[in-house]
Records
---
Amino acid sequence: MTPDDSRAQYLASGSDAPSDHERLDLIRQVLGEEATWAEPPPLVADGLLAALAVEAAPGLSATPERGSRWPLAAAVAGGMVAVVALVLSTITVLDQERDIVVAMSGTDLEASASGQAAVRSTDAGWWIRLDVTGLSPAPQGKYYEGWVWSDDDDGVSIGTFHLRGGDAPVVLWSGVPLADYPSIWVTLEDEEGGPEASDLVVLTGRLPAPPDD
């Protein structure tokens, strides 16, 4: 049931005021609609303050007139959307400030490939989001493997992927400190091969400065 269907059903019911359960159902339906999240509301902070002031605003009571029932519910739902949008946008900004961005370049094996790796320290280890373009999907029987590499020529695997569904972002993890393993490589591996890195390096990058672990 869409929010418009819910509104029509509610207006036809003849009820003087929506119950708390009905209000929660309406808010849940609004938040579940894709259109609600298509574009954040403009001036989120101002909209949030206005929505939170609904109860104190003159002309809006706990038992509104029939014609004002929907505006009240819409204001409450709008306030909920504003709260969520404000929180999500704040988290995004904070996360971006924590990221270290590593430029990734294709080797002679994949000269048209390029991208970047966003690196972030977490309580579980180093989170690495790899965004690449121009890298061919791994053939059947093969896969790509990410590595962090030290200047002493030691490598540690950080995950595998194949890109056969398109250039979707790939999330990799490192449990070793990147201050000691500042280079990021991607190799092409054979499913029948061993755990060691192959010589088929297709992407390389290096942290601009060794981060603290």
---
Amino acid sequence: MARSLILWLIWVGFILYLVLLAPPLPADTFQPLRSLLAGELPTINPVVLSLFSLVGIWLLVYSCLIFVDGRMQPLPAWLFMLGAIATGVFALIPYLALRQPNQTFSGKKDPWITILDAQATGVILTVSTIILVIFAVIWGDWGGFIQEFLTNRFIHGMTLAFGLFCALFPYPTLLQDDMARRGLNTDSKLFRIAAWIPLFGPLIYLCLRPTLLAFRFSRS
């Protein structure tokens, strides 16, 4: 109950902050999209482009846990993750708040879960993240990004959402349950790496975690 209450408070607080306290949304916020639709190549700060892509990486990281977890939940995990594609953390937090701790997995893995469960998926996401970070560090305009963070609600909110993805990953028992399904100890070094190293810790976990068997009933 306390876990869910804290998540709902974070969800409501984040919405209220963006509506009431965040910087305004400039009129030209979506100009790059309009340029792209007009057949022109938009000019986007590499830091912003990388951050937007890393939010997508985070959604895939969570998907690698949530679609397995959703098999044992009464909630339609796919519906929340579909909403997260459009709204990011706004659709993700309700799933984390409504799900119940569950360390079991049963039934045959479908092709989508098989892909998300594969260590190769973790490797691909890790390599993609490294490329995006290098792209932002070397070619990004960090001064311009800070200015946009302070003046643009979209960039401001996206940056805070990235931070929430990092902070929530070890909290709502999602990680602990996924480890238990695979016979991993939550007191292990792997848990501490996944929980306390932002983004790269979860990616390392996806690269190293054992694959679920096609039919497996974990500890009740």
